[in-house]
Amino acid sequence: MDLSKSVVHGVASKDSGIYLSKATEELYKKIEFFSKRGGSLLIITGENRTGKTTFAKYLAEHLSMDEYETILLSVMSDEVKSGWLLPKVCTRLGVEFGNKNLSLSEFLSTKLEELFEENKNLTIIIDGAERLRSSDSFEEIEFLSDIQTLSENKINFILLGEDVLLERIKTTPLINRISYFCTFPLLDKDEIYDYFCYRSSSLNVPKSLISEEGIEYICQLSEGKIANVVMILDNCLIEAKLKNIENIDKRMINEVVGSHILLFKENGVNLSLQDNQKLENDYSHNQRPQDIKIPIPDVFTQPPQPTYQDGKSLSTQHGSNNSNILKHDVISSQNKRGSIDKLFDSMYSQSTGGNNPFSEENENSQNSVYDADDEEQEFLKLLKKNKVKT
Fold first, then answer.
1. Is there a single domain that holds both residue 284 and residue 299?
2. Is residue 65 domain-shared with residue 96, that is, in the same domain?
3. In the chain, how many domains are there?
4. CATH number for the domain including 226?
5. pTM of the predicted model, to two decimals?
6. CATH number of the domain bearing residue 90
7. Torsional sign, CA 283, 288, 293, 295
8. Which residue segment(s) compose the domain that 213 sits in?
9. Are both 303 and 374 inside the same structural domain?
10. The sheet that has 121-127: what strands, in order across it?
11. Neighbour tally for 64: CB within 10 Å
12. Hey, is 316 helix, strand or coil?
């Protein structure tokens, strides 16, 4: 790809600020053609983060208001029964429910006749249509499709969803009414550069800021999904502008991805690439202190167990005479001190590479051992010397 000869193919709406690649612009023209004909069922599928929801908003805003009455609906939760569509459509159309003797379908028929007199087609855009999980949830779409076959009122349906949408439509009669089907287009390297040119002009940065290597690397990381491209490129552009970086290359992209590793990972950026595997490992080795589990020696966690002088356990001696005196194991304190000394000797040698100068092996045992009897004798001598009566 020669960046010096690349031409910006994408377009952007000044009103919405939504960018369309060349392939997405062509898709819009096809949808516009079928919508003008009227009575069309259009199915658009694609993976998450490919831009389907943004495109649905673009359709709702740009289909001519002189030719269409456009309704955009988003399926936010799973629908398994009928009855979810008609009330929403009637509400959006402003249908008044003054006459309780009329059904929703009769209200809608009245509104459709008004649109026909205005020479408009009703276009219903349904985003997140993969959440229609049963054939019953498609019944109202079938019903409205049947209405237009019996009258001159033309209703367009544009359904956008993940790949499973088409499999669910195959279980309904709608499969025989599809006018057009496509998979939402991914971005190639040229289109990613087009988007970069579009964004760089709004930020007043030169188009030469990004290298061909950088474009190819972003294409690999994003897998051509527009939402991932936007996230990576916008973060790189902001970082370059703030730090006066003159070239967005592979190294700089890795730094940006590494500093936002959780954000990119949660949003599906391809971190399986070899260069980014190191970033994941680095992050896992630099956890917050409270996330790091330090093994604690048994000497700190296990208190000495009480026993009797004869060595039997407390439970076996319950109810015995007072001659059995409860006490701690006589060697427990010695063992504990020895374990602690070894622990600190090990820690000191690992951190300094040498022996602990304060260990028992290196100190003078005669000067360091505390002897209570010697202190008592010294105190008595002091009393006699000063003739103090005890």
1. no
2. yes
3. 3
4. 1.10.8.60
5. 0.65
6. 3.40.50.300
7. positive
8. 189-290
9. yes
10. 68-74, 121-127, 155-161, 41-45, 180-183
11. 11
12. coil
Do 232 and 169 fall within a single domain? no
Instruction: Give Cα separations from 223 to 39, 72, 188, 228, 274 (angstroms).
Output: 35, 28, 9, 8, 15
Question: Is the domain of 150 the same as that of 232?
Answer: no
pLDDT one digit per residue (tens) for the chain, 390 residues:
555 444 344 544 444 568 889 999 999 999 999 998 888 999 999 999 999 999 999 999 998 888 889 999 999 999 989 889 988 988 888 876 555 556 777 777 778 888 888 888 899 999 999 999 999 999 999 988 877 665 566 789 999 999 999 999 999 999 999 999 999 999 999 999 999 998 888 888 888 999 999 999 999 999 999 999 998 999 999 889 888 888 999 999 988 888 777 666 666 666 655 454 454 454 444 443 344 344 444 444 455 555 444 544 444 444 444 444 444 444 444 454 455 555 555 554 554 455 555 454 554 444 444 455 665 666 666 666 665 444
Strands 155-161 and 180-183: unpaired
Tokens 């599809």 belong to which residue? 178
Tell me the longest C-alpha to C-alpha distance in the chain: 129
Considering the domain architecture, whether residues 176 and 205 belong to the same structural domain is answered as no
